[in-house]
């Protein structure tokens, strides 16, 4: 049996059962090393703007595997020319992407991007964790730590899946780009920058923590800031003033109406009909006022809201700003001024259409790694970098990864045996998608 790749007009042998078993055994043989390297990566607190040391570690790991290396600082001015870019409020000085490229001696198979993000969200009050978010402890089959699930275990799985092929003496016949990107948790600009730099392929696989399943669809996301104006006075004359913080609560309630209206429309949007609450508005940060004994003159809210695939970010933004513009008075008759500014994500959602070769091959590989269990898919009300490749390069993006708990929360952790199975699945997928040359046959 052979597989024909139309883009190269080349024919490569299909993976044999014996080669499959060699790959599975190779993942097991090196899994202790994989786990230790994942722990080492978790110990680098790669918060936004502070990803350099973790990227140094991955750069060394990729270059040590003989990959062709590329590292560059994100350029906010260049990114701003792309319609999919998020709004930038920080300096990108020292904020780098890392890409390692494997090139076969002769490129006969399909190409692939193995993508993952290195940035993690803040850990919050460390005293509320059961154990340190940065010590990467293993307890009862779980690896703990900020970023363990989201998504350093997946980033490392990409590399060790490749190692397993080589240990099994199977050399991929397609070009592979290993991407470690920044900014996934706030703008999506890392993956977008890699695409703008010219990194494309016939498929993309992103091992986000997705409960051993494939993401079928996900929402768009906008980050924005609302500034509410008040009128300061002394508290003894509060009735003559206007408290901007009090008014901010009223503004949020009006935005909740928009959230409720969008959720009521879920039946019109394919794959979202059965989700209980697909559209979520989150008040992420709030600050305001200048003095305990002064009625606050201002309040700022930093928010995140989702919207459905098929709706543009501009359309969603128009509805948000119209809702705010319609506010004239609060519940006490005070005039309200609420101005919104986009601050990060300005990203549209996507649907991974069924029937692609990439999904079929992932399904076969998943079944082999999971004891015959079929690959399941689901819809997520969260953001994913897969949208970059689907929307702007027409590349099928397979977002598929291990079981995790409490990502973005206290005691984030990833299921170690799930990581092992996902690594096997990725390795088999790479072998089948790219094709392999069996170098063991030479000896």
UniProtKB/TrEMBL annotation:
Its EC number is 3.5.1.16. InterPro entries: ArgE/DapE (IPR010182), Bact_exopeptidase_dim_dom (IPR036264), Peptidase_M20 (IPR002933), Peptidase_M20_dimer (IPR011650), Peptidase_M20A (IPR050072), YodQ-like (IPR033687). GO terms for molecular function: acetylornithine deacetylase activity; metal ion binding. CDD domains: M20_ArgE_DapE-like (cd03895). Residues 217-328 form the Peptidase M20 dimerisation domain. It comes from the Bacteria. Pfam families: M20_dimer, Peptidase_M20. NCBIfam families: DapE-ArgE, PRK06837.1. This is Acetylornithine deacetylase or succinyl-diaminopimelate desuccinylase.
